[in-house]
From TrEMBL:
Keywords noted in UniProt: Antibiotic resistance, ATP-binding, Cell membrane, Membrane, Nucleotide-binding, Transmembrane, Transmembrane helix, Transport
Protein name, entry field: Putative ABC transport system ATP-binding protein
Keyword Ribosomal protein: no
Matches recorded under InterPro entries: AAA+_ATPase (IPR003593), ABC_transporter-like_ATP-bd (IPR003439), ABC_transporter-like_CS (IPR017871), ABC_transpr_LolD-like (IPR015854), MacB-like_ATP-bd (IPR017911), P-loop_NTPase (IPR027417)
GO molecular function: ATP binding; ATP hydrolysis activity; transmembrane transporter activity
Pfam families cross-referenced by the UniProt entry: ABC_tran (PF00005)
Amino acid sequence: MSIVRFVNVSKEYMLGEQKVRALKDINLEIEEGVFLAIAGPSGSGKSTILNLIGCIDTPSSGNIYINGQDVSGKTPDELSDLRARTIGFIFQTFNLFPVLSAEENVEYPLLQFKDISTKERRERTVKFLDIVGLAKFAHHRPNQLSGGQRQRVAIARALATHPKIILADEPTANLDHKTGEGILQLMKEINRREQTTFIFSTHDARVMAMADQLIHIEDGELIASEITK
Ligand code: ADP
Ligand code: ADP
Protein backbone atom coordinates (compact mmCIF):
# COMPACT_ATOMS: atom_id res chain seq x y z
CA MET A 1 0.00 0.00 0.00
CA SER A 2 1.16 3.54 -0.74
CA ILE A 3 1.73 5.63 2.36
CA VAL A 4 0.96 8.80 0.35
CA ARG A 5 -1.17 9.14 -2.77
CA PHE A 6 -2.05 12.37 -4.62
CA VAL A 7 -4.81 12.17 -7.24
CA ASN A 8 -5.12 15.25 -9.48
CA VAL A 9 -4.09 17.58 -6.69
CA SER A 10 -4.05 21.31 -7.33
CA LYS A 11 -3.42 24.11 -4.88
CA GLU A 12 -4.13 27.78 -5.34
CA TYR A 13 -3.42 30.60 -2.94
CA MET A 14 -5.11 33.97 -2.98
CA LEU A 15 -2.61 36.79 -2.79
CA GLY A 16 -4.92 39.80 -2.40
CA GLU A 17 -7.07 39.70 -5.54
CA GLN A 18 -4.60 37.50 -7.37
CA LYS A 19 -4.70 33.73 -7.64
CA VAL A 20 -1.34 31.97 -7.29
CA ARG A 21 -1.25 28.43 -8.71
CA ALA A 22 1.20 26.65 -6.43
CA LEU A 23 0.49 23.08 -7.68
CA LYS A 24 -1.16 21.86 -10.87
CA ASP A 25 -2.71 18.41 -11.22
CA ILE A 26 -0.17 16.44 -9.25
CA ASN A 27 -0.44 12.63 -9.34
CA LEU A 28 1.93 10.86 -7.06
CA GLU A 29 2.43 7.58 -5.21
CA ILE A 30 4.88 7.14 -2.40
CA GLU A 31 5.57 3.66 -1.04
CA GLU A 32 6.05 3.10 2.67
CA GLY A 33 9.68 3.09 3.80
CA VAL A 34 11.22 5.14 0.98
CA PHE A 35 13.81 7.89 1.30
CA LEU A 36 12.34 10.43 -1.07
CA ALA A 37 13.69 13.79 -2.25
CA ILE A 38 11.60 16.55 -3.79
CA ALA A 39 13.82 18.75 -5.95
CA GLY A 40 12.96 21.96 -7.74
CA PRO A 41 13.79 25.66 -7.86
CA SER A 42 12.66 28.08 -5.16
CA GLY A 43 8.95 28.81 -5.50
CA SER A 44 8.25 25.62 -7.51
CA GLY A 45 5.87 24.16 -4.89
CA LYS A 46 8.08 21.94 -2.69
CA SER A 47 6.91 23.38 0.63
CA THR A 48 3.32 23.26 -0.57
CA ILE A 49 3.61 19.50 -1.23
CA LEU A 50 5.12 18.95 2.23
CA ASN A 51 2.40 21.07 3.85
CA LEU A 52 -0.28 19.04 2.08
CA ILE A 53 1.24 15.69 3.08
CA GLY A 54 1.60 17.04 6.62
CA CYS A 55 -2.10 17.98 6.71
CA ILE A 56 -1.25 21.54 7.68
CA ASP A 57 -2.84 22.70 4.44
CA THR A 58 -5.61 21.26 2.25
CA PRO A 59 -5.78 20.99 -1.56
CA SER A 60 -7.95 23.32 -3.66
CA SER A 61 -8.98 20.27 -5.71
CA GLY A 62 -8.10 16.60 -6.01
CA ASN A 63 -7.67 13.94 -3.34
CA ILE A 64 -4.88 13.12 -0.94
CA TYR A 65 -4.62 9.78 0.84
CA ILE A 66 -2.32 9.51 3.83
CA ASN A 67 -1.78 6.02 5.21
CA GLY A 68 -4.87 4.92 3.29
CA GLN A 69 -7.11 7.69 4.61
CA ASP A 70 -8.68 10.27 2.34
CA VAL A 71 -7.92 13.58 4.02
CA SER A 72 -10.57 15.56 2.16
CA GLY A 73 -13.72 15.94 4.18
CA LYS A 74 -11.92 15.50 7.49
CA THR A 75 -12.58 18.10 10.16
CA PRO A 76 -9.67 20.20 11.48
CA ASP A 77 -9.69 18.09 14.66
CA GLU A 78 -9.54 14.84 12.69
CA LEU A 79 -6.70 16.25 10.58
CA SER A 80 -4.71 17.30 13.59
CA ASP A 81 -5.20 13.85 15.10
CA LEU A 82 -4.04 12.16 11.89
CA ARG A 83 -1.05 14.52 11.77
CA ALA A 84 -0.09 13.92 15.41
CA ARG A 85 -0.20 10.14 14.99
CA THR A 86 1.31 9.82 11.53
CA ILE A 87 3.69 12.70 10.78
CA GLY A 88 6.94 14.08 12.20
CA PHE A 89 8.34 17.41 11.01
CA ILE A 90 11.92 18.61 10.61
CA PHE A 91 12.53 22.21 9.53
CA GLN A 92 15.51 23.96 7.98
CA THR A 93 15.53 26.37 10.95
CA PHE A 94 15.17 23.51 13.48
CA ASN A 95 12.23 25.22 15.30
CA LEU A 96 13.25 24.20 18.81
CA PHE A 97 11.93 25.93 21.91
CA PRO A 98 14.84 28.10 23.07
CA VAL A 99 13.95 27.94 26.78
CA LEU A 100 13.67 24.14 26.87
CA SER A 101 16.57 21.71 27.12
CA ALA A 102 17.30 19.18 24.37
CA GLU A 103 15.50 16.55 26.44
CA GLU A 104 12.46 18.75 27.09
CA ASN A 105 12.23 19.63 23.39
CA VAL A 106 12.08 15.92 22.51
CA GLU A 107 9.59 15.15 25.27
CA TYR A 108 7.28 18.07 24.53
CA PRO A 109 5.19 16.64 21.63
CA LEU A 110 4.59 13.46 23.63
CA LEU A 111 2.67 15.42 26.28
CA GLN A 112 -0.33 15.68 23.95
CA PHE A 113 -0.91 11.90 24.01
CA LYS A 114 -2.98 10.83 26.99
CA ASP A 115 -2.23 7.18 26.22
CA ILE A 116 1.54 7.62 26.66
CA SER A 117 2.52 7.29 30.33
CA THR A 118 5.16 9.44 32.02
CA LYS A 119 7.46 6.43 32.16
CA GLU A 120 7.05 5.68 28.45
CA ARG A 121 7.61 9.38 27.65
CA ARG A 122 10.87 9.46 29.60
CA GLU A 123 12.04 6.21 28.03
CA ARG A 124 11.40 7.40 24.50
CA THR A 125 13.12 10.73 25.19
CA VAL A 126 16.26 8.99 26.43
CA LYS A 127 16.17 6.44 23.62
CA PHE A 128 15.86 8.92 20.77
CA LEU A 129 18.41 11.39 22.17
CA ASP A 130 20.75 8.42 22.32
CA ILE A 131 19.94 7.35 18.73
CA VAL A 132 20.91 10.82 17.44
CA GLY A 133 24.09 10.76 19.54
CA LEU A 134 23.11 13.46 22.03
CA ALA A 135 22.75 11.55 25.31
CA LYS A 136 25.44 13.74 26.86
CA PHE A 137 23.73 16.94 25.78
CA ALA A 138 20.29 16.20 27.24
CA HIS A 139 20.35 19.23 29.53
CA HIS A 140 21.75 21.71 27.03
CA ARG A 141 19.52 24.41 25.62
CA PRO A 142 19.46 25.03 21.84
CA ASN A 143 21.78 28.06 22.10
CA GLN A 144 24.34 25.81 23.80
CA LEU A 145 24.33 23.43 20.81
CA SER A 146 25.81 23.63 17.31
CA GLY A 147 23.60 23.74 14.20
CA GLY A 148 24.13 20.03 13.56
CA GLN A 149 23.32 19.17 17.16
CA ARG A 150 20.15 21.27 17.02
CA GLN A 151 19.06 19.43 13.91
CA ARG A 152 19.72 16.14 15.73
CA VAL A 153 17.43 17.27 18.55
CA ALA A 154 14.80 18.09 15.94
CA ILE A 155 15.19 14.60 14.43
CA ALA A 156 14.86 12.96 17.86
CA ARG A 157 11.76 15.06 18.54
CA ALA A 158 10.24 14.05 15.20
CA LEU A 159 10.94 10.35 15.88
CA ALA A 160 9.65 10.28 19.45
CA THR A 161 5.99 10.11 18.43
CA HIS A 162 6.73 7.02 16.25
CA PRO A 163 5.48 8.66 13.05
CA LYS A 164 5.04 6.71 9.82
CA ILE A 165 6.30 9.66 7.79
CA ILE A 166 8.96 12.24 8.52
CA LEU A 167 8.72 15.44 6.48
CA ALA A 168 11.82 17.58 6.24
CA ASP A 169 11.85 20.97 4.54
CA GLU A 170 15.44 21.56 3.36
CA PRO A 171 16.91 19.83 6.44
CA THR A 172 20.51 20.63 5.47
CA ALA A 173 19.99 24.18 4.18
CA ASN A 174 21.41 25.88 7.28
CA LEU A 175 24.24 23.44 7.90
CA ASP A 176 27.76 23.38 6.53
CA HIS A 177 28.61 20.68 4.00
CA LYS A 178 30.12 18.17 6.41
CA THR A 179 27.46 18.60 9.10
CA GLY A 180 24.72 18.32 6.49
CA GLU A 181 26.25 15.07 5.29
CA GLY A 182 26.21 13.68 8.84
CA ILE A 183 22.56 14.64 9.28
CA LEU A 184 21.68 12.88 6.02
CA GLN A 185 23.55 9.73 6.97
CA LEU A 186 21.69 9.70 10.26
CA MET A 187 18.32 10.15 8.55
CA LYS A 188 19.12 7.36 6.11
CA GLU A 189 20.21 5.04 8.91
CA ILE A 190 16.94 5.63 10.76
CA ASN A 191 15.01 5.17 7.53
CA ARG A 192 16.63 1.75 7.01
CA ARG A 193 16.35 0.59 10.59
CA GLU A 194 12.87 1.79 11.51
CA GLN A 195 11.30 1.68 8.02
CA THR A 196 10.14 5.26 8.60
CA THR A 197 9.27 6.99 5.33
CA PHE A 198 11.36 10.17 4.84
CA ILE A 199 10.18 12.87 2.45
CA PHE A 200 12.34 15.96 2.12
CA SER A 201 12.72 18.96 -0.13
CA THR A 202 16.15 20.00 -1.24
CA HIS A 203 18.35 22.04 -3.56
CA ASP A 204 21.31 19.91 -2.59
CA ALA A 205 22.67 17.43 -5.17
CA ARG A 206 24.17 15.20 -2.44
CA VAL A 207 20.78 14.86 -0.84
CA MET A 208 19.25 13.90 -4.19
CA ALA A 209 21.96 11.29 -4.72
CA MET A 210 20.99 9.52 -1.49
CA ALA A 211 17.30 9.27 -2.33
CA ASP A 212 15.46 6.06 -3.34
CA GLN A 213 12.93 8.13 -5.21
CA LEU A 214 13.46 11.57 -6.72
CA ILE A 215 10.66 13.90 -7.67
CA HIS A 216 11.25 17.00 -9.75
CA ILE A 217 8.78 19.83 -9.69
CA GLU A 218 8.88 23.02 -11.67
CA ASP A 219 6.37 25.82 -11.59
CA GLY A 220 3.90 23.65 -9.65
CA GLU A 221 4.06 20.74 -12.09
CA LEU A 222 5.50 17.29 -11.61
CA ILE A 223 8.23 17.03 -14.25
CA ALA A 224 9.62 13.64 -13.30
CA SER A 225 9.41 10.95 -10.66
CA GLU A 226 12.13 8.35 -10.75
CA ILE A 227 12.82 5.40 -8.53
CA THR A 228 16.59 5.45 -8.27
CA LYS A 229 17.16 2.44 -6.00
P1 ADP B 1 11.57 27.68 0.52
O1 ADP B 1 11.88 28.17 -0.85
O2 ADP B 1 12.81 27.51 1.35
O3 ADP B 1 10.66 26.52 0.57
P2 ADP B 1 9.62 29.77 0.74
O4 ADP B 1 10.03 31.18 0.99
O5 ADP B 1 9.17 29.37 -0.61
O6 ADP B 1 10.80 28.84 1.28
O7 ADP B 1 8.41 29.37 1.71
C1 ADP B 1 8.52 29.36 3.12
C2 ADP B 1 7.10 29.30 3.70
O8 ADP B 1 6.41 30.52 3.42
C3 ADP B 1 6.29 28.18 3.09
O9 ADP B 1 5.75 27.39 4.13
C4 ADP B 1 5.19 28.84 2.27
O10 ADP B 1 3.93 28.21 2.47
C5 ADP B 1 5.17 30.27 2.77
N1 ADP B 1 5.07 31.19 1.63
C6 ADP B 1 5.80 31.14 0.49
N2 ADP B 1 5.46 32.10 -0.37
C7 ADP B 1 4.47 32.81 0.25
C8 ADP B 1 3.70 33.94 -0.12
N3 ADP B 1 3.83 34.55 -1.31
N4 ADP B 1 2.78 34.41 0.76
C9 ADP B 1 2.61 33.80 1.94
N5 ADP B 1 3.33 32.72 2.36
C10 ADP B 1 4.24 32.23 1.51
P1 ADP C 1 9.11 26.08 -2.71
O1 ADP C 1 8.97 25.38 -1.41
O2 ADP C 1 9.46 25.17 -3.85
O3 ADP C 1 10.04 27.25 -2.64
P2 ADP C 1 6.39 26.93 -2.22
O4 ADP C 1 5.60 25.69 -2.13
O5 ADP C 1 6.76 27.62 -0.95
O6 ADP C 1 7.68 26.66 -3.12
O7 ADP C 1 5.60 27.98 -3.11
C1 ADP C 1 5.00 27.68 -4.39
C2 ADP C 1 4.29 28.92 -4.90
O8 ADP C 1 3.16 29.21 -4.09
C3 ADP C 1 5.15 30.18 -4.89
O9 ADP C 1 4.76 30.97 -5.99
C4 ADP C 1 4.76 30.84 -3.58
O10 ADP C 1 4.98 32.24 -3.62
C5 ADP C 1 3.29 30.49 -3.48
N1 ADP C 1 2.82 30.37 -2.09
C6 ADP C 1 3.22 29.44 -1.20
N2 ADP C 1 2.59 29.58 -0.03
C7 ADP C 1 1.76 30.65 -0.19
C8 ADP C 1 0.81 31.29 0.66
N3 ADP C 1 0.59 30.89 1.90
N4 ADP C 1 0.14 32.36 0.13
C9 ADP C 1 0.35 32.78 -1.12
N5 ADP C 1 1.21 32.19 -1.98
C10 ADP C 1 1.91 31.14 -1.52
